[in-house]
Write a structure and sequence with these properties.
The protein has about 55 residues and is an all-alpha fold. The protein has two helices and no strands.
Length: about 55
Amino acid sequence: MAKMGRPKIEEVKDKTITMRVTPAEYEKIKKYAQTHNLTITQVLQKGVEILFRTS
């Protein structure tokens, strides 16, 4: 019988970036994430994608 489990992903995300923000910035990010039904990580990833597209 074949192994069961989570399928392998093509591009492994093994790098971590941390960022310090003010309480006001955190609340803005959190509120945006909630209103758009996203995680905070997804919001930040979208922001990075926009920066890469415009540069």
